[in-house]
Amino acid sequence: MTGDVVPREQAFAAARRVLDQALDRIARDRAAGLLSPEAELIVRRAERRYAERHGTAPTTRAA
Question: Which of 5, 7, 39, 45 is buried most, with the most CB atoms less than 10 Å from its CB?
Answer without folding.
Answer: 39
